[in-house]
Amino acid sequence: MSQAPAAPAARIAVAGLGAVGLAVAKALDRGIAGLALAAVSARDRDAAARRLAGLRQPVPVLEIAALEPRADVVVECAPASLLRPIAEPFLRRGKTAIVLSAGALLADEDLIGLAARHRGRIVVPTGALIGLDAVTAAAEGTIRSVRMITRKPVRSLIGAPYLAQHGIRIEDITEPLRVFSGSAREAAAGFPANLNVAAALGLAGIGVDRTELEIWADPGLDRNTHSIEVVADAASFSMSIANVPSENPKTGRITALSVIACLRKLAAPLRVGT
Q1: What are phi and psi of 88, to 5 degrees?
Q2: Helix ranges (DSSP H) in 41-195
Q3: CATH of segment(s) 10-127+254-267
Q4: 3-class SS of residue 253
Q5: What residues pair up with 252 in beta bridges, in sequence order?
Q6: Which of 191, 103, 199, 222 is nearest to 148 (CA)?
Q7: What is the mean pLDDT of residues 86-114?
Q8: What is the pLDDT of residues 168-214, one digit of tens each?
């Protein structure tokens, strides 16, 4: 009896070729079952082509608008301001957008409705956080509170809009300084390059407006750390993670690995985790 022909590989586009996007593109080129790297986009297309010169299967470096016809799934690894032009064409065609800029999704929530109308899908990877499976499960019952404390090296917070708006200088601090206390929504807006984890936590649990957050700048740290406390009717739990920074100090190395793990699940015969 002959075997059924193998399903064609899902075509993946990577939008943005920074530390995360490059790692994802290289992983796809090395091989992920059922997936194939189809195209990438980057602000500097010539520089991107040079960074991709070592790929076993070369792919085109395109403008963002040219990605959708070539791919079934787009992985958004770009500045938050580019979320809509990257994701919207894919969602309108009923395709999948894997979104790292979860904070930007809060400002473009209509994309969720767009995905629903066209049977598209938005996937937010776990990223630099821990325990989103547990939070998602607890949200099927009643969560009473979610609180996160983020501590970051000073250099990873410099340039955040919230600091500039409130006249907070951290360049010369010699001890830990709390620079923010408020909701996950406010944190994601004020620290768009740093706190996508806050948006993801809020979306997974009781919402970004009820998720409480503190941010500390700590000159003694060399890792981004997040501690989460959840009180729910099913369980009370706490979690902590200390992420090794990538070449971009605002992003942990585990973020790219989380995206790669998410991609593997797209076509995997076995999925472990919610």
Answers
A1: -55, -45
A2: 45-51, 83-92, 102-107, 110-118, 132-138, 154-157, 161-165, 184-190
A3: 3.40.50.720
A4: helix
A5: 245
A6: 199
A7: 96
A8: 999 999 999 999 999 999 999 999 888 888 999 999 999 999 999 99
Q: In what order do the strands lie in the sheet with 143-152?
A: 177-183, 211-217, 143-152, 224-232, 236-243
pTM for the complete prediction? 0.90
Using DSSP, state whether 224 is helix, strand or coil: strand
Report the distance separating Cα 179 and Cα 160, nearest Å: 11
Task: Indicate the CATH number of 132-250 among 3.30.565.10, 3.30.360.10, 3.30.450.20, 3.40.50.410.
Answer: 3.30.360.10
Q: Which residue in 144, 138, 147, 149 sits closest to 178, CA to CA?
A: 149
- Any idea what DSSP says for residue 46? H
Indicate the domain borders of the chain: 10-127+254-267, 132-250
DSSP 32: B
Is 166 annotated in the active site? no
Of the candidates 127, 226, 245, 263, the residue annotated as catalytic is 226
Distance from C-alpha of 271 to C-alpha of 274, rounded to nearest angstrom: 8
> For residue 21, which of 46, 50, 52, 57 has the smallest C-alpha distance?
52
Q: How do strand 61-62 and strand 35-41 relate by DSSP bridges?
A: parallel
* Residue located via tokens 């770009």: 78
C-alpha–C-alpha distance, residues 49 and 59, integer Å: 9
Beta strands at 73-76 and 61-62: parallel, antiparallel or unpaired:
unpaired
For β-strands 211-217 and 61-62, DSSP reports them as: unpaired
**pLDDT for the residue numbered 6:** 61
